[in-house]
Amino acid sequence: MDSETRLIRCSVGRCEACPERMDVGCRKLGQSENSSTENIRTVLIEAERGLLHFNEHKELQQTYPPWYVDGWETVFIGINCPLFRDLGDILEIYKVGPYLTLFKKSRNQIQHHSIPIVRTSLEYSLVEELSDTTTQFENSSGMFSVRKGITQRLEMITDIISKHILKLIPEINQTTRTTLSEIIAQRRSVFGSLIPILLDDLVEELYLDYPGANVYFDHQKLGRCDTNFTFIESDVPKIITLIRAESNLHLDRSNPSLKMDLQVLGASLRFSVSIPPLSPDGLHLEIRRARNRPFSITDLIDNNTITPEVAAILLLSVTCRFNITITGGPGTGKTTLLNALDMTTPRWWRKIYIEDAVESRNQKNHHQVRFRVDPVDEQLGKSDKSSEIIKSLHRSPDYLILGEIQTAEHSNALFQAIAAGLRSLQTCHSDSSSSLISRWKLSHGIQDSNLAMMDLIVTLERPKPGESKRRVKEIVETRRKKVDGLLQFSGLNVVYDFKEGQRDWAHDGAFLIYARDYGIESHEPALRNIMDMMTNEQYRSDLDILSARLWSNGHPLDVIGNESQ
């Protein structure tokens, strides 16, 4: 989708001294109005007044500047602020909570800037002054006498500051007062610099390599982005204290790494933290952010992560409760795809989730039981994933959602559960299905007879490091045969490759074996019927309806076979 940001620098005297002035507005704004670009944002700069104004083309069809009409967003960032000089190549600009988020091209990198939304020099001065005195609000409130989470503490401080501003300047309206109070409270948090990024639903993952290094992050549309801030050594003890308090897990020299889930102002975050001696350069931090609205299968088709062919294969596989492993390198979108597939399951299925970091989603009116186990980093943990997988044999799941399979113990528990008749969906790190099979066999000691019970392996990739594009690289089915009544693993068959598209099905592959076991010749009518149903807007907008429809007459293959005739 084409997009463009138009930058207009206004003169000191505004329209009266501007040669672009017209009788009915501004010539430059008129050029933006008539642009053929689908998405265009116009930014007006008044450096001498310290003001930045912006709007979105579709929302504001006009040729008049903000001092003549309402509807513009105005931010005061300081008279002749240095940022004004570097705004030549703006790639994106939008609001995130009480902040203006701005991305610009700087050499070969994308630079991120976050600007508090204050509209006047008075508001700007008030934020600066009260940010230096917030500690007295914290101490006077007695808020630390009872243990509270970070969101609760921020909300309490925000409320106290808002009341203080009301007494100080009663003329400031409630909306502005709340915005200013949020900015001030968040600025005083140990994660203050990160909060504008953590609140952004387009941010995927954030990184701090070591104290003193600039923070950087991955953006859903723009890829790898740099910031101009960092954490210094004096911040580290505060961060460690906060993480220990929020997670109730060990983080010290004897246990120098951990994973934890944290909710911050509505953002669902997964922290991965390491400290010396494991990370010799100091604190290392990775924060993965879950989208407020998770990607659906339709979204993944629209952003080219999967093709309609891939969607049909995966929907049939999940609806038939195949044992599916999603693999790929770090940051390739494994959990995103798993969650999207999970959301397509019928509402009446009983699903058991076992995760060390809670990345599954609560689904309204679905039967879900979620267990959170201690991460592998937690050496003193009392609940481990392997034990809970085995316990699931007595929990009667229709589908077992396992999150990430990491260790040999996890793998052995997984295949033990599959051998006992459970159906499962999980992720595992590897760069291909062949590598994953080798890892399971050689590193984790899984026998061929057990490998034969894994039906499908889906491999995702990120073609260029640091860029946002992901895609399904290949889908393979396992091939198997029976010898003397025992299953044997016969290899893998590629059923989809991103270069060649859909390929042939193996006679001894999971799909045709599943169809024959059910008493029909082939599953291919099923795929064709799913493709037809996906073109129907009723199903495309809500694919769990499609899955339920496939089961409504007894079995997906029955329904598909009848409907396709």
Rg (C-alpha, Å) = 27 Å
* DSSP E strands, number: 24
> Terminal Cα separation, in Å?
39 Å
**What structural category characterises the helix and strand content?**
alpha+beta
Query: Can you name the CATH architecture of the domain at 322-520?
Result: 3-Layer(aba) Sandwich
CATH superfamily (homologous) name of the domain at 322-520 = P-loop containing nucleotide triphosphate hydrolases
* Overall 3D form: globular
Helix content: 25-40%
Main-sheet strand order equals: 18-17-19-20-16-21-22-23-24
Please mark out the parts with pLDDT under 50 across 5 or more consecutive residues, or reply none.
560-565
In percent, how much strand structure appears in the residues? 25-35%
Characterize the largest beta sheet: strand count, sense, and whether it forms a barrel: 9 strands, mixed
Mean pLDDT value? 87
| Helix run count | 19
* CATH C-level class of the domain at 322-520: Alpha Beta
- As for the CATH topology of the domain at 322-520, it is Rossmann fold
Oligomer: single chain
Give structural attributes.
565 residues; alpha+beta; Beta-Lactamase; Rossmann fold; 6-stranded antiparallel beta sheet; 19 helices; 32% helix; globular; disordered C terminus
